[in-house]
Amino acid sequence: MSLLQLPTRRLLSQAHCALKPRPSKQQRFCLQMARPSSNMADFREAFARAKHIAIITGAGVSAESGVPTFRGAGGLWRKWQAQELATPEAFARNPSRVWEFYHYRREVMLSKQPNPAHVAIAECERRLSKQGRSVVVITQNIDELHRKAGTKHLLEIHGSLFKTRCTNCGNVAADYRSPICPALAGKGAPDPEIEDAAIPVEELPRCEEDGCNGLLRPHVVWFGEALDAEVLAEVEKELDMCDLCVVVGTSSVVYPAAMFAPQVSSRGVPVAEFNMEATPATDRFRFHFAGPCGTTLPPALARHHTELIA
Ligand SMILES: [Zn+2]
């Protein structure tokens, strides 16, 4: 089934829920029979043959660079988890608080660097492009660490901390300023006792398009919002074309790999997971490599001896 044929409601629910579809009797039989390989030499054979590699990355890759996610136990900003602030309703109620949260997340990124997994992915793309082979990175991460590492072909399905979108004219713009506006300077501290800065809405980031001056919002996909149709169409194209799929830092029962990797696997294309631990979905795929992806991924994507152009 094509992604674009999925009804929006299902896309939305897949976007923000862990997926654990109950396997059919036949699938259960297959799951019991199949075991993914963790044989690196076999993966390297598939890697050497691949012309179009799709790399799907999730929160685990960012976590190894120390990027906070504000989800799960202890993952609070002031009194809230990301799910309570990253919504259109929260922004409508209190745009100042939501902007403080995103300002803080942007500022935190000034001190974070790509880790060896980001670097290995970018280096692989640079090297393979000289050989007429392609690498695309499909990521749910909004921190731009892939871009910072040098990745060129990047599909950010959740948008970016460093882009804004005008709530009036819809203009999307890259914005790396620190702070993004004078009123947010020194604001956004995460400690639970900090009071809202209650910045007047006219002093929050505003659109600089001629005569607009609309309120800007972070260009990220919030809970309850649909993914960008153009980005999804690009993802679909890449998934249809790839002849090797690498899933990094996200388990295959959790979005986004849960949406994308099984689609690729069902075409008979090898899928390799690089993740801290195996999950019930792991057995659907050809390869699984357990451990921190900063350790497991670099040797997997390094130059193969059959690559004549480095
Ligand atoms: Zn505007």
Report on the structure:
This protein has helices at residues 8-16, 25-33, 40-49, 59-63, 82-85, 88-93, 95-109, 116-129, 145-149, 229-241, 257-265, 293-301; strands at residues 52-57, 134-139, 154-156, 159-166, 172-174, 216-220, 244-248, 271-275, 287-290. The chain has 310 residues and is α/β, with parallel strands linked by helices. The chain has a six-stranded parallel sheet with strand order 3-2-1-7-8-9, sandwiched between helices. Strands 5-4-6 form a three-stranded antiparallel sheet, with helices on one face. The two termini are 37 Å apart. 37% of the residues are buried. Residues 1-20 and 28-33 have low confidence and may be disordered. The structure holds zinc ion. The site of zinc ion has 8 residues, from loops. Belongs to the sirtuin family. Class III subfamily. Substrate binds at residues 102, 105.
